[in-house]
Design a protein that fits this description.
alpha/beta; Rossmann fold; N-(1-d-carboxylethyl)-l-norvaline Dehydrogenase, domain 2; 2 domains; 8-stranded mixed sheet; 12 helices; globular; binds nicotinamide-adenine-dinucleotide
Length: 294
């Protein structure tokens, strides 16, 4: 990439579900990228599975992984102590101007960055799975961070085909996961109340609102339907919706029985094929859908 960006090298920490596709995204868009994982087997496995782009370097050494990079994207497990440990370990080794970002799904920026030497250069860059396909990236920055730094990052993400949205506030769960959580809570509530089977609730979403959502957001849909109509609908339905703050029982029970979804071949559904096959199939379908939408 003939780049005018100040971000000339990127390091991704954690080569799991997300880290791998974040590293593919940047390297395949011409940016020299280094990918590190604490588990050597993950790196060895990656080398054997998918041909690596010439811009992608895999490493098993954390300090050298970060020392040359202008942007570091942490994508280790969603466990606070693991993330903090990674930040504390890399602190003495990162470049002075480097942006340190987390791909956390749920920790607010101020909680992750508190007391870290680079807290003023720390951001949240929330990708979606798979990061090299799904366009949206949610961004959260510290109030004092210079616009020029963020604008440089936004331009870079756009060049890689992403659609960045910069939040005005540092809020738990960002926008997309809050919306997803609200829908999932009500889906579980309908299941619990015996209104419909799992597959029927999924069908309702896929064959109606899901199709719409690929083209229109909630406000556009409300405008299309008529605000007066939606005012009445909300008046009638809102008092009936689930508003509990604990995790739905159906999810608790599955997790307690180690039924974690695709990765254990059983979740809300049974998966007869191996989990990796299902993931590959889903990825192919998603890629086709995105191509059609464009
Ligand atoms: N899975 C998703 O759909 C999704 C979407 C958006 C954001 N996220 C967030 O991305 C992050 C990673 O999630 P994931 O789904 O890729 O998890 P994952 O479990 O698939 O991958 C985590 C990787 O981190 C490695 N790791 C563990 N400790 C490490 C350390 N100290 N240093 C370096 N590597 C270490 C593990 O070996 C593993 O390969 C989490 O914060 C998660 O909330 C996940």
């Amino acid at each position: 990439m003939d780049t005018v960006f100040k971000i000339k090298r990127i390091t991704v920490l954690g080569a799991g579900t997300m880290g791998q596709t974040i590293a593919y995204l940047f390297s395949e868009n011409g940016i020299p990228t280094t990918l590190y994982d604490a588990d050597n087997r993950v790196i060895d496995d990656m080398i054997s599975k998918r041909g690596l782009h010439e811009n992608l370097k895999l490493t098993k050494r954390l300090e050298t992984a970060v020392s040359e990079s202008d942007l570091i994207v942490e994508s280790v497990p969603e466990i606070f102590n693991i993330k903090r440990e990674v930040f504390l370990t890399i602190a003495p080794h990162v470049k002075q101007h480097a942006i340190i970002a987390s791909n956390t799904s749920s920790f607010p920026l101020h909680v992750l960055s508190e007391g870290l030497p680079f807290s003023q250069r720390m951001m949240l860059i929330h990708f979606f799975n798979p990061a090299d396909l799904i366009p949206l990236v949610e961004l959260v920055k510290p109030a004092a961070m210079a616009d020029a730094i963020v604008n440089d990052l936004i331009s870079l993400l756009k060049t890689c085909g992403k659609v960045p949205v910069l939040l005005k506030r540092d809020i738990n769960g960002f926008i997309a996961n809050r919306l997803q959580a609200a829908l999932l809570r009500e889906a579980c509530n309908l299941l619990q109340q015996g209104v419909a089977e799992v597959s029927d609730i999924d069908t309702v979403v896929k064959q109606s609102i899901g199709l719409r959502w690929a083209l229109n957001g909630p406000f556009e849909i409300t405008d299309l339907g008529g605000l007066d109509v939606w005012e009445k609908v909300l008046t009638n339905i809102l008092p009936d919706l689930d508003n509990t703050t604990s995790v739905p029982l159906s999810i608790n029970q599955l997790v307690n029985n180690n039924n974690l979804g695709l990765k254990t071949n059983k979740g809300f559904y049974d998966y007869p094929q191996s989990a990796s096959n299902q993931a590959v199939l889903q990825r192919e379908k998603l890629a086709r859908l995105l191509k059609d939408i464009k």
